[in-house]
Design goal:
Elements lengths: L39 E2 L2 E2 H5 L1 E4 H6 L21 H19 L3 E5 H4 L6 H22 L2 E6 L18 H20 L4 E4 L5 E2 L7 H21 L5 E4 L9 E2 L4 H10 L6 E6 H6 L4 H11 L2 E5 L18 H13 L8 E3 L10 H28 L2 H7 L7 H7 L5 H11 L9 H11 L1
Parallel strand pairs: 3-4, 3-12, 4-5, 5-6, 6-8, 8-10, 10-11, 11-12
Antiparallel strand pairs: 1-2, 7-9
Helix pairs in contact: 3-5, 5-6, 6-7, 10-11, 11-12
């Protein structure tokens, strides 16, 4: 489908056309150096491998504010005084940006797309109006929705949580909001739906019944799943881990915590994990570690592609530019068979000091080039280097004989003890970590 460069009567990103691919030798900041959507890497195109998405919130709703200062970025789509008119302008700007950047997907919170009304019914009506406009924009541009979600953390009513709130009245409002967001996601053909529990946690155990709150969270997710399946949603539900901030301790601390929660409550059949790189940093893990835990469990759903700053103790949501980190991530993803229904969503924001509209393009171009290059490097490492053979070789003692019998559950503890006696002290076998690290650098 041929995409229009902008929708409506106004062009917001004047002077910027469709972002071209110009290759490694180009010094044009408004061109891709690595990402070619239709370039084949293995049996898929780059677009099919990476499934890039732009987030609605940071990109079009965030103005650079931080805990110590107000917005620094002035967006022309925020000019209308009426909130609904501003929402329409923001949507026009968003679809113009998606089209010019050339991504296949976008993601949104309900409150990104439509303002909140004074009542539940008014909020639902406002969102429904904007969803209809978004559907028209999708049809005109060929854009698709990777996932939708509800903002259950911004409003003051959620100060003590949403699904885990000790006040049942708040839980009902959260349910109403999720219902509307699910309706919107289905109407727009969303392929996934995300739950991020920004305030699903606690600040003090002195006033918190954690077991009851966890039970409530699971029950809430069950009701959302059942409703969504009932209206025809066939996609994947995603839970996004984060250890803290805004809550002191959040129940979805990291990937393994979420995996354990989903399995404990019998939700793993419908729910998977949406891994965010910056949240991995806050949990004290690497991005690739969180991805590996999910692929080991068969529960990797989608990825929020950004990075954190190890010198800062909060969620900086920077655009991904660390090629080494991205290569490690893509090694895990490709070894798992690649992204299927998920994608790489840029849950990232330009820096507070980056106040030109073109900076939004430059940031996304850099992130897309980073993962395009990482895709190429990781593919070469997995398909053309000795790494997979060496890695498998570390475990060859389990491939036959007593090691294989142990994996099959055929040896009890006494039998293992007797094998230790008969075999004597094992030889020291090098892990060759430096060799692996040098190999990655060589392919970079």
């Amino acid at each position: 489908m041929t995409r229009q460069l902008f929708i409506g009567d106004k062009e917001y990103f004047r002077g910027i056309g469709r972002i071209p691919y110009e290759g490694q030798e180009s010094d044009n900041p408004m061109a891709f150096k690595c990402y070619e959507a239709k370039r084949m890497v293995g049996h898929k195109t780059m677009e099919q491998h990476l499934r890039f998405a732009v987030c609605y919130w940071h990109t079009f709703c965030g103005g650079g504010a931080d805990p110590f200062g107000v917005d620094t970025q002035v967006f022309p789509w925020d000019a209308p005084a009426d909130p609904v008119d501003a929402a329409r302008a923001r949507m026009d700007a968003a679809f113009e940006f998606f089209t010019k950047l050339g991504v296949p997907y976008y993601c949104f919170h309900d409150r990104d797309m439509a303002p909140e009304g004074n009542t539940v019914a008014e909020s639902e009506a406002l969102l429904s109006t904007m969803v209809e406009l978004a559907r028209e924009r999708q049809e005109a541009t060929g854009m698709k929705l990777l996932w939708g979600t509800a903002n259950l953390f911004g409003h003051p009513r959620y100060m003590n949580g949403a699904a885990t709130n000790p006040d049942f009245a708040v839980v009902t409002h959260a349910a109403a909001q999720v219902k509307a967001a699910l309706d919107a996601t289905v109407a727009l053909g969303g392929e996934n739906y995300v739950f991020w529990g920004g305030r699903e946690g606690y600040s003090s155990l002195l006033n918190t019944e954690t077991q009851r709150e966890l039970d409530h969270l699971a029950r809430f997710l069950e009701t959302a799943r059942d409703y969504a399946r009932g209206i025809g949603f066939t996609g994947t539900f995603l839970v996004e881990p984060k250890p803290m901030e805004p809550s002191k301790h959040q129940y979805d601390f990291d990937a393994q915590t979420v995996i354990g929660f989903l399995r404990h409550y019998g939700l793993a059949g419908d729910f998977k994990v949406n891994v965010e790189a910056n949240h991995a940093t806050l949990a004290g893990h690497s991005f690739s570690h969180e991805l590996q835990m999910c692929t080991d469990a068969g529960l990797l759903g989608s990825i929020d592609a950004n990075r954190g700053d190890p010198q800062n103790g909060w969620d900086t949501d920077q655009f991904p530019s660390d090629l080494y980190d991205a290569v490690h991530a893509m090694l895990v993803v490709l070894a798992d068979g690649g992204l299927t229904q998920g994608g790489l969503n840029f849950d990232a924001k330009v820096r507070r000091e980056s106040v030109d509209l073109e900076d939004i393009f430059i940031a996304h171009i850099g992130g897309m080039d980073t993962f395009a290059r990482a895709l190429q490097v990781a593919t070469r490492l997995l398909e053309g280097s000795a790494m997979p053979v060496h890695k498998a070789g570390r475990y060859r003692s389990f491939d036959s004989g007593d090691g294989a019998a142990f994996e099959r559950g055929e040896l009890d503890l006494l039998a293992l003890r007797n094998l230790a006696v008969a075999g004597g002290e094992p030889n020291h076998t090098s892990g060759k970590q430096e060799w692996y690290e040098n190999l990655v650098n060589q392919y970079l």
